[in-house]
Design brief:
Rossmann fold; eight-stranded mixed beta sheet; about 20% strand; binds adenosine-5'-triphosphate; binds magnesium ion; P-loop_NTPase; DNA_Partitioning_ATPase; Chromosome partitioning protein ParA family ATPase; AAA_dom
Length: about 260
C-alpha cells in the first residue's frame, strides 16, 4: 500500500528539501517506486534534482490551477525509481487564490488520488510555514516527517508548534500520524546538539534513530543539481539516508503488524 509522507517544519532551513530529495534517492535505489511532490514556491527540491519549472512540460501549479492532471504533469525517472511533480514559483499566487475556494485544504489530496497508487511512497516537500499549502500537504499525507536542524537553538520550540498543529488537525478528525522527528545537521560535538538531544524526548513524538550528519557536500550538491546520495554514494551522508530509508520501511511493517494484531 502507498504511504504518503509530508516532510514539514515551518522553520526555514531545517532540511526539508534536502531530506525529501536524498531520502527519495535512497528509497529509489532500494527498489521502492517513489514520487516527490514539490509544493514549495521556492521549488528547492526540484532544483536539487537539477531541474526547473521551465524545463518541465507541467508543474504542480498547473495541477492546482486545473490546467493539468497530476499524471500528465509529472516528470518520470528523475533518478532511479523516482518521479517528480515539479515545483513552481507560481505556487505563491496559487496559495492566495486557494483561500477563497471550497475544500481549499483538500486540493492536493484530491489531485494525488489518481496517481499515488502507482507508487510505494510519495514524499511531499512543504514550504517553511504552516499556511494553506502545508495544510494541503498534511491532508494529502498519512504521516509527517519532521527534519530538525540540530544547530538551531530555537528548533525545540519550532517542533513543539508543529506537533501541536498536527494535534489540532487530529481533533478535527484529520488522520495524520507523526512518522518521526529526524535529527539533521548533526555534529555531536556541538553544545546545541547535546542540549536539543536531551530536550527532544519531552516532545512526546517518535524520535528516529537515523541521524543525518552535517556535511558541506549537501550545499555543493544543490549547486550542481545532483543529490548527495547520487554524487557521493560511499559517503557517511549517503549511508545515513540508506539507514533512514530502511528505518522508515521497518516502521511501516511494525505499524501494520500492530493494526493486524488489534483487528
Ligand atoms: N545535513 C546537512 N549538512 C549541511 N548542510 C545542510 C544539511 N541539511 C541541509 N543543509 C543545508 O541547509 C540549507 C537548507 O536546507 P534545505 O533547503 O534542505 O532546508 P529546508 O527546510 O527545505 O529550507 P526551506 O525552509 O527554505 O524550505 C541548504 O543550503 C542545505 O544545503
Ligand atoms: Mg525547502
Amino acid at each position: 500500500m502507498t504511504r504518503v509522507i509530508a516532510v514539514a517544519n515551518q522553520k526555514g532551513g531545517a532540511g526539508k528539501s534536502t531530506v525529501t530529495v536524498n531520502l527519495a534517492v535512497a528509497l529509489g535505489q532500494a527498489g521502492r517506486s517513489t514520487l516527490v511532490v514539490d509544493i514549495d514556491p521556492q521549488f528547492d527540491s526540484t532544483a536539487m534534482f537539477g531541474l526547473s519549472p521551465e524545463s518541465a512540460t507541467g508543474t504542480i501549479a498547473d495541477v492546482f490551477l486545473g490546467e493539468s492532471e497530476a499524471g500528465e504533469a509529472l516528470m518520470t525517472s528523475v533518478t532511479e525509481n523516482v518521479d517528480l511533480l515539479v515545483g513552481d514559483g507560481r505556487m505563491a499566487d496559487v496559495e492566495l487564490t486557494l483561500v477563497s475556494q471550497v475544500r481549499r485544504e483538500e486540493f492536493l489530496a484530491e489531485a494525488l488520488r489518481e496517481v499515488q497508487g502507482d507508487y510505494d511512497l510519495v514524499l511531499i516537500d512543504c514550504p517553511p510555514n504552516l499556511g494553506l499549502l502545508t495544510v494541503n500537504g498534511f491532508l494529502a499525507a498519512d504521516e509527517v516527517l519532521v527534519p530538525i536542524s540540530m544547530v538551531d537553538r530555537n528548533a525545540y520550540k519550532g517542533a513543539a508548534t508543529l506537533l501541536s498543529t498536527l494535534q489540532t488537525l487530529r481533533r478535527r478528525r484529520v488522520s495524520v500520524e507523526t512518522l518521526g522527528l529526524l535529527r539533521n545537521n548533526v555534529d555531536e560535538r556541538r553544545n546545541t546538539y547535546q542540549t536539543l538531544n536531551e530536550a527532544l524526548p519531552a516532545l512526546d513524538a517518535p524520535l528516529l534513530d537515523a541521524q543525518i550528519p552535517m556535511r558541506a557536500g549537501f550545499h555543493d550538491a544543490t549547486t550542481e543539481g545532483i543529490p548527495l546520495v547520487v554524487r557521493k554514494p560511499d559517503g557517511r551522508a549517503a549511508q545515513a539516508f540508506r539507514e533512514l530509508a530502511a528505518e522508515i520501511q521497518a516502521r511501516s511493517a511494525t505499524h501494520t503488524t500492530t493494526l493486524a494484531e488489534a483487528a
